[in-house]
Amino acid sequence: MTRDIYSTEGLYRITEKEDISPVISRHVIYAPLIAAKAKAGHFVILRAREGGERIPVTLVDWNPEQGTVTVIIQAIGKSTTAINAFRQGDSFSDVAGPLGTPVEIKKYGTVLGVGGGVGIAELFPIARAFKEAGNRIVSILGARSKDLLILEKAIEGISDKVLVTTDDGSAGKKGLVTDAMKELYAAGEKIDAIFTIGPIMMMKFVGETSRPRGTPTFASLNPIMLDGTGMCGGCRVEVGGKPRFACVDGPMFDAHQTNFDQLMKRTAAYREHEKASLDRYAKDHECKIGLH
Amino acid sequence: MLNHKGRDFSYGDAEVMENKPKKPTPSIKRNTGRHQDPVARRGNFEEVALGFDLEEAVTEAARCLGCKTRPCELACPVNIRIPEFVDLVYKEKVGEAASKIFETSLFPAICGRVCPQETYCELACVLKDKFGPVSIGRLERFTADYARKNGLITPPPCAPDSGFKVACVGSGPSSLAAAAELRKLGHAVTVFEALHEFGGVLSYGIPTFRLPREVVRFEVEMLKKMGVRLLKNVMIGKSVTIEELKKDFDIIYIGSGAGLPTPLNAPGESLVGVYSSNEFLTRINLMQAFKFPVTDTPYYIGRKVVVVGGGNTAIDSTRCAQRLGPDSVTLLYRRTRAEMPARAEEVENAIEEGVKIEFLTAPVALEGDEAGRLKRVKCVRMELGEPDASGRRKALPKQGSEFYIEADSLVVAIGQSPNPIIQRTTAGLDAGKAGCILINEATHATSCEDIYAGGDVVRGGATALLAMKDGKAAAKAIHERLSLKRK
């Protein structure tokens, strides 16, 4: 009897959950169809509950044998806060994917990965895939402070060289990821391609730093997304002067061609709504639990 | 169940109506049904058209002549046995009337709401010119609703298992219609939906005030009871490719719809507040953003909303926007009312609800503030020239007629085309203009063996009814193909 690959038994259950920091959690989710298909750069859309929003998250890892996928989520708004309150054994109401176009993995020579904040987690599978393809991997990890620096060990395991920067100097060097990039260039490091994932402002300046040196640079864009299947166009970003859909054409695009300023404005579209929703959630939970 | 006069009519199929008119009495005044008050409905997402009660339905059914020539049935895209079901309604055998409809169409509660009957059965009704047609659409809706609410629905019987497996891609009207027919014929059917709700455009596109979601869910549940397997969150072409499906299924039917929005291609389209109709309607209908923050998906419309287009999607967008309480909702359409592709009834409804329509007007540029939010729309007046290839008169801009209207949000509803992912990821699957899958029109077979297609993925943006018609026609051809395979 072969396994029914379309069985819905136990689908979207959290088989393992780990709190990496007070606001960042790792979730291993049972979703065998996605696990069988996942590649570096793919994302999934999660929905925590009925009435919940659709949240795009880049896959950090996957295990086709066990039928699981791994995501790492930072609690920022209401939905991500609620998701990180999930425990092992809880289930998402929906997980769709794998979505997007995976990163084209090839032999460049030396690949520099630049990850910022929770983007470090999303950088991991991409760096790993480039390593497996025979590239030399240099990684720059940036975080606001030491306790927001994640996956350092895992990245070290697949990198030939790792540089860490924090805003406050609590880990690695005090400064920005672009300072570390400049250091590498100044030291004569030959970099053949750069992949960056993190805050929009960071990715913009990674692109600006590499532009004069002519290093091909790709950024994983994170616009507001709704369906994630190419249907709504809400995730449109301007690349090379043309609108592209991050959900199907991306999320990885040429950073030197990307209009980051427009992306920043578009991602701010619902900032007030997001705040109101989080405040409401926090208030509800204060009342119920009696903490704080 | 109480009717609007407060009388109890929950008697199932027993005849309870006293003093009922004799059938046929075509001269009884045609009843087109009651509507929610235009002012009240502007503030809610409840259904606009209210159904018949049993008494109203029986009275309307009494008007039907029961023509032997069945002009109504012949005009129906899914060939519903109209004279018979109307007669059963007259006899107050509503459960039987529902079963009669199920013989050819499994979705009367949906069709009774979204089918433009005035262009099909009611146009063909012999009473049309003298007395006005029998309100067949309203009777269909009544039959489905009454039978559902009173537990009178029996799912149609299915033939013994054929041993064949069919995959239906998408869960919109076309795919569901194909799935229903194929299951009735005894095949094992699996439906794949990319989103988290079944129904395709019936869930993400058509607003709840035209089609309540419990209606869609009920009809999907009935398919499940018949043994159809429905899987959500599986995007064919991404999660599973057509090639992979072929390993597990004997036949594949692609009914994935037309989910790709057509952009305006005007400067400023990336400003915050500019939506495709797909995004706007999906936020409101699928994600229920109108309940935010009880639901988690927000929307932003500001005080002044502009919608661009002239079809049903444009009208639906204006009416959704109006219910969110802005100061104004203005529709820009580049031709005149006579050329509008939207259903006349829905245009009327929109106007009643306070939507303003600027005819012979087109947007040429969108302008925003420093934060990148839309502020105003540069428009141009149009005039009609010679008829184009589609037979409609071409709209041409009038020189020097540019003017501005203020807008906080703008919804682009100027057409859809098929999502290209399946075509791109399936070797040998031929597609034509705008990425529409090419088929043999008689059989719905595509260029790939044992892969069929229908609905909007073939037609581009058409109607739910034509999509259902395609699903049924394809199911017939697929059944014939499978019958040959058995030999």
Oligomer: heterodimer
Q: Give the uncertain stretches of chain A in residue-range form.
A: none
Q: How would a crystallographer describe the biggest sheet of chain B?
A: 5 strands, parallel
| Structural class assignment of chain A | alpha/beta
Overall radius of gyration of chain B: 23 Å
What is the rounded distance between the termini of chain A?
Answer: 53 Å
Average predicted local confidence, pLDDT of chain A: 92
CATH architecture of the largest domain in chain B: 3-Layer(bba) Sandwich
Topology:
The complex is a heterodimer of chains A (292) and B (487).
Chain A: E1 14-19, E2 24-30, H1 32-37, E3 43-47, E4 55-58, E5 61-63, E6 68-74, H2 78-84, E7 94-99, E8 110-116, H3 119-132, E9 136-143, H4 152-158, E10 161-166, E11 173-174, H5 177-186, E12 193-197, H6 200-210, E13 217-220, E14 236-239, E15 242-245, E16 252-254, H7 260-267, H8 271-289
Parallel strand pairs in A: 8-9, 8-12, 9-10, 10-11, 12-13
Antiparallel strand pairs in A: 1-2, 2-6, 3-4, 3-7, 5-6, 13-16, 14-15
Chain B: H1 38-41, H2 54-61, H3 71-75, H4 82-90, H5 94-102, H6 108-114, H7 121-124, H8 136-149, E1 165-169, H9 173-184, E2 188-192, H10 201-204, H11 213-225, E3 229-231, H12 242-248, E4 251-254, E5 260-261, E6 274-276, H13 277-286, E7 304-308, H14 312-322, E8 328-332, H15 344-352, E9 356-358, E10 361-368, E11 374-387, E12 393-397, E13 403-406, E14 409-412, E15 416-417, H16 421-425, E16 451-453, H17 456-459, H18 464-486
Parallel strand pairs in B: 1-2, 1-4, 2-3, 4-16, 6-14, 7-8, 7-14, 8-9
Antiparallel strand pairs in B: 5-15, 10-11, 11-12, 11-13
Helix pairs in contact in B: 2-4, 2-8, 4-5, 4-8, 5-8, 6-8, 9-18, 13-14, 14-15
